[in-house]
Amino acid sequence: MTSWAHGYVADSPYTFAYQAAQAPGNLALICAMMGVDWQPTARMNVADIGCGRGYTVNTLAAANPGWTVLGLDYNPAHIAEAAALAEKARIDNATFVEADLAEMTDAEIDQIPELDVVSLHGVWTWVSDPVRAGIVRLLARRLKPGGLCYVGYNALPGFGGDMALQRLFRHLTALQPLGSSPEKARAVIPTIRALHASKPANLLPTGMLKRIAEDETELDASYLAHEFLTAHWRPVFFEDLCADLAPAKLDYVGSAGFHENVPDLIFSPEQRAIYETLPMGPAREFMKDLVLQRPFRRDVFVRGLRRTDPAVALDRLVLGACKTLPEKSPSIGVPVGSAELGPDLWEPIAAALREAPQSLGRLRSLTPDRNPNAAELLTVLAGAGFVLPVLRDVGPSEATQRFNRAVAETYWREGRRGGQYAMASPVTAAGLACTWMELAVACQIGDSGPEWPDAETIATRILPDISGEALEAAKGMVEELLSERPAIWRRFGII
Ligand SMILES: C[S@@+](CC[C@H](N)C(=O)[O-])C[C@H]1O[C@@H](n2cnc3c(N)ncnc32)[C@H](O)[C@@H]1O
After folding, report:
1. DSSP one-letter code for 230
2. pLDDT tens, 393-405?
3. Spatial distance between the Cα atoms of 197 and 172, rounded to a whole number of angstroms
4. Is residue 339 a contact partner of residue 380, using CB atoms and an 8 Å limit?
5. Looking only at Cα atoms, what is the longest distance across the chain?
6. Does residue 170 carry a pLDDT above 90?
7. How far is the centre of ligand 1, averaged over its atoms, from the C-alpha of 292 (Å)?
8. Phi, psi dihedrals of residue 47, rounded to the nearest 5°
9. Quick check: helix, strand or coil at residue 472?
10. Cis peptide before 157 (omega within 30 of 0)
């Protein structure tokens, strides 16, 4: 039934996940950091190529009525689900197209409007050469001069250690006569565990293998199937990706992972000395790939790079706290140890952000004697996930509220098992990452006017099938959310 799939997994849907790195507002932070002149505008055409179940597309469309957001995928089940969610939430600026990138003619590609932003998350290193060629043709023909392109992909050497694991998955699942791809992936895990325990020399104990073979909680079988069972699984070196994308005339901006752009946070003095001898471009990126733990690269490119002063661009960014800010600075793990802010920097910055969104320039001016580095400040605040860009000073919109409600209602069964959810926010022009439970609680509050129902009523409404101890536990979770989150939800125009 899936002979059209050309080796990619198509007998079961991919996970339903919001991918924050794709949000144009987040990409603009990276551009500012790297001194590249690019900002999202009120009217843009955005496309997600290989959009899966379309959650990111629908979130961006709901949060940005002035944008048209296109999701393209060849799996009709993905497209049907994405379009049904858009219809349920009455999001009319999201368009979903079922098309095989390997087979699209130039004339079909040219029916897509000229694009300001194109994202490809988890596609390039899972598909065949003809599909890759289709992607390059689409970028070359439809990405506007000055347009931005985000590519998230399995990278070498970081993912190289898992090449044997992928082959092992393929060989073992080929022995499974029956079942869907996720069922086959799940069925072979005991064998992989046994083999891992026997320590074969070339089945390297990578983070991924340990996660699969040692962790109590199983990885989502749909994820495993889509990750490992494709016939075309090929992690690539950054420079080989760049060579393949050359016809689209893309220039490299930087990594969507903030600290990966800051050599001071990556290299020891010895490594830094070698890095400095290398020319800018692929050689330096390769050196970073040797040092960083990054099996998955998230690269930002622009078609026609224009430089700007990063100091000015960074100071203009407006950031809002999207989590409760702790007493002590958040810390992010980096190759040279950890990156965090000392109390003299963190305390005034956190106090200001607790009050309202702030420009990075204002945050820096709070401690003039320290003159903090804007890129490092952004790296700690945004890299640790404590702030999001604030693009608009607005309240909740009907579109985002309808959409958030539609997601909470539609995915109540799947969402309770975990997953990457987000609340569409007109303020950050994208999603605010959350659990399904947070989303469901925020929708209950948003719907009920100034007088919120109590925690038990909310718990009973969102989880009508539980009682006893489970209901008590849910009530406790709702109480905790109500004590912490509403100020943040208000700040981001969710309620
Ligand atoms: C690993 S999934 C990533 C989905 C989504 N970008 C995400 O991150 O949630 C890869 C996606 O590429 C799509 N795909 C694979 N081959 C394709 C092709 N030839 N044309 C269009 N889409 C394709 C699959 O259907 C799948 O949705």
Report:
1. -
2. 999 999 999 999 9
3. 17
4. yes
5. 69
6. yes
7. 27
8. -135, 145
9. helix
10. yes
∠ CA(382), CA(387), CA(391), 5° rounding?
Answer: 105
Looking at this protein, which amino acid is placed at residue 193?
R
> How many other CB atoms are found less than 10 A from the CB of residue 33?
24
ipTM value: 0.99
Looking from the CA of residue 101, the nearest atom of ligand 1 is: 20
pLDDT confidence band for 1 (50 / 70 / 90): low
Residue 297 β-bridge partners: 153
Distance CA 202, CA 403 (A): 47
Phi, psi of 72 (to 5 degrees): -125, 130
- For residues 192-224, b (16+ Cβ closer than 10 Å) or e, as one string? beebbeeeeeebeebebbeebbeeeeeebbbeb
Say yes or no: CB of residue 153 within 6 Å of ligand 1.
no
- Token readout for 277 is 């001898």
Residue of 469, 494, 468, 466 whose CA lies nearest to 481: 494
Quick one: which of 398, 378, 400 has its CA closest to 388?
Answer: 378
Q: Locate 168 and state its tokens.
A: 């092992």
Q: Is the pLDDT score of 217 beyond 90?
A: no
320 alpha carbon, distance to own chain's centre: 18
Digit-coded pLDDT (tens) for 339-384: 999 999 999 999 999 999 999 999 999 998 988 999 999 999 999 9
d(CA 441, ligand 1 centre) in Å:
31
Q: Is 185 in the pocket of ligand 1 (CB under 6 A)?
A: no
- Above 90 in pLDDT, residue 290? yes
| Alpha-carbon span 331 to 327, nearest angstrom | 12
DSSP H helices in 147-280:
163-174, 181-187, 189-197, 207-214, 221-228, 238-245, 263-266, 269-277
- For residue 81 and ligand 1, the question of a CB distance below 6 A is answered with no
Contact 32, 375 (CB under 8 A): no
- Rounded average pLDDT over 271-277: 98
Instruction: Decide: 53 and 82 in contact? Cβ < 8 Å.
Output: yes
Q: To 5 degrees, how large is the angle CA 66–CA 438–CA 415?
A: 90
pLDDT digits (tens, 9 = 90+) for 56-94: 999 999 999 999 999 999 999 999 999 999 999 999 999
Cβ–ligand 1 contact at 492 (below 6 Å): no
435 vs 406: CA distance, rounded Å: 15
Cβ contacts of 404 within 8 Å, gap of 6 or more: 62, 423, 424, 439, 442, 443, 446, 494
Is the beta carbon of 226 within 6 A of some atom in ligand 1?
yes
For residue 179, which phi and psi values (nearest 5 degrees)? 105, 165
Identify the CA nearest to 249 among candidates 305, 307, 308, 306.
305
The answer to whether the CB of 346 falls within 8 A of the CB of 329 is: yes
Q: What tens digit of pLDDT does each residue of 426-477 get?
A: 999 999 999 999 999 999 998 777 788 999 999 999 998 888 999 999 999 9
Q: Whose CA is nearest to atom 13 of ligand 1?
A: 50
